[in-house]
Amino acid sequence: MGAVAGWVRVSGAEAEAHRLYGLGGWLRVISALMVLSVPGGVVLTWQQWVDSALGAAAVASNLLGLLVLGAQIGMAVLWFRLWPGFRPGYAVLAVVGTAGLALADAVIGPPGGPASADPVGDLVLEVAFHLAFLAYMQTSRRFRVTFEHRVKAGEGACGSA
What predicted TM-score, i.e. pTM, was given to this entire model? Predict the structure, then answer.
C-alpha cells in the first residue's frame, strides 16, 4: 500500500466495500455527459462533414472529425469500465485534443458546418470545462475510490475516518 499525496491504495475488494464506491453522487452527472457525448459527437461530425471532392483540407478535416468522435467513444467506454488510468488518460486527451484542434483550425481551417460566432470563446469554454473536470477528478473521494482504488490516508475501507 503506497501513499500518494494523502491517498492510500487499497485492494479492489476493499474499494468495492467502501461507502463511496460506484458511479453515484456527482459521478452520475459525468456519466450522463459521457452517454450524451456519443450521439452528440456523431451529430457534430455529421454537421461538420465536408465534401471530400473539395481537396486535401476537406479530407483532413473529415478525418480529424472521425478521430475526435473515436476519442469521445473511447473515453465513454473507459469511463463505464472504471478504467484506473482514466484521470491521466483524460488529462492527455484534454491537452492533446484541445491543442490539436486549435492547431488544426489554424492549419487546415475551421471544420465545415455551422460557423462559430466566437471561436476564441469556444476554446476558452472548452479549456474551462476540461480544467473543471480534471479538478473534480483530482479532489473527488468517490472518483478516487471507484477508479483508482485509493482512499484518504487514515480512512478504512468502510469510509470511516
Answer: 0.81
Q: SS3 string of 104-146?
A: HHHHHCCCCCCCCCCHHHHHHHHHHHHHHHHHHHHHCHHHHHH
What is the CA angle 47-70-106, rounded to 5? 60
Whole-number Cα distances in Å, 37 to 31, 40, 61: 10, 5, 20
Rounded mean pLDDT of 134-153?
A: 94
pLDDT of amino acid 161: 42
Distance of alpha carbon 13 from the chain centroid: 26
For the sheet containing 3-4, what is the strand order?
A: 3-4, 7-9, 150-152
Neighbours of 121 (CB within 10 A): 10
